[in-house]
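Researcher: Here's the sequence for the chain we discussed earlier.
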Amino acid sequence: MPVNYGSLPFAEALAFLRAKLNLPTQRWDDLLGAAHDLAFVVAGAMQADLLADLRAAVDRAIADGTTFETFRKDFEQVVADRGWTGWTGEDSKSGRAWRARTIYDTNLFTSYAAGRHRQMQEVAERRPYWRYRHSPASVVPRAEHLAWDGIILRHDDPWWGTHYPPCGWGCKCFVETLAERDLKKQGLSVTPTAAIPYNRTVTRVNPATGEEYTVPEGVDRGWDYAPGANATAPLVALITQKGSGWPGSLSASVLEFLRPHLPVEMLRELAAALGLTIS
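Model: Thanks. This is the structure I predict for it:
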């Protein structure tokens, strides 16, 4: 695994990013978890052209393997060109760097994780075991993630559905595959469920809204999913709730994007919520 996690482009990571729909959102938690598999979002980016430019900058970063500094300059240029204001971090140099870093890391790490997930699923018959690894590149390690280092489970174990990394903001943990012969050769075995550290959920409070939410311990809110495994339900829920005020052209493009992913009845219900009809 390279020290600069996410620095080497590969087809599956690019395919994951390029298959997404651009979706305007007000807040970072408007869209959580697996819905990010289908949507490219930047909190506060409500204009279609702004979102498209930000996405293009992310695409270049993944396709070309560019450094954060290059992306940061692209980000600043997009902000200036589009006159984007009112976003968290804009009032200071450190705030702008933090926001650029968040967009850069989040998209690179999830795209690479999703691409890797697809690769590992394709060889799951021959290499059915997955091992959680904590990255030495993490500057401030989380105790839970350090404790998970070395956990071995089958690829289809439910634990991966909530703990497939990245498991939070800035998390650089990763997963490697193992064959049966690897376990025998290295004297390894599958980790018993009872032996998995921090294998419980905790209830926390969102300080901004007072809302309570439950997450696996050691996993940040909105990160308890496996990038690349895909789920349409959260995305459909958001569109139903927020989409009534969208321009007709945006609603139509969203509907067309989701057509191959949804049953006909759900598609019709969504169309009705957007003020559209489908044949």
